[in-house]
Design a protein that fits this description.
single chain; mainly alpha; 6% strand
């Protein structure tokens, strides 16, 4: 589209060159220059929007989105990172497969999914989950135990 306008513009300029006193040719040339500039600006705006959109998508994929109520100060952990984190914090191993099983049955730490579908754990949630499992509470009945453990596991 721009190439055809450029070609027409060259033809008009050549025609204007041969008739410099004709104001109609100059007006047409100026109008075409303005149209060409507007078309170029539209293309620039579209490309800018595309680049900004791609940049935002890249940021979203590389920086795991935070669920509501979570601060950016806590560490984000993948299922693979979870094992090393649990071992260093509490000496408790938690393999990626075990974490997947705990996600399935609802007994593991709270998690969310990032844009690529990976399970992401917030270190604050893992710390809370570990505190209950490493420092067991005393209960007077199994009902009390199930209500407390179940409530913590579902957070």
């Amino acid at each position: 589209m721009i190439e055809s306008q450029l070609s027409q513009l060259k033809d008009l300029i050549e025609a204007a060159h041969f008739a410099p006193d004709d104001d109609a040719y100059l007006a047409i040339v100026i109008d075409n220059l303005v149209d060409l500039r507007e078309a170029q600006q539209k293309q620039i705006d579209l490309l800018t929007a595309l680049v900004e959109g791609q940049t935002q998508l890249h940021r979203a994929a590389s920086n795991h989105p935070l669920p509501p109520g979570k601060s950016s100060m806590s560490k984000k952990l993948t299922a693979r990172d979870l094992d090393a984190y649990c071992r260093s914090k509490a000496g408790v191993p938690l393999s990626a497969k075990t974490a997947a099983n705990k996600r399935h049955d609802g007994t593991g730490p709270a998690y969310y999914r990032d844009a690529s579908g990976r399970a992401i754990y917030d270190s604050d949630d893992v710390d809370e989950w570990l505190a209950v499992r490493v420092n067991p509470q005393k209960f007077r009945s199994t009902t009390e135990e199930e209500s407390t453990i179940g409530r913590i596991a579902r957070r």
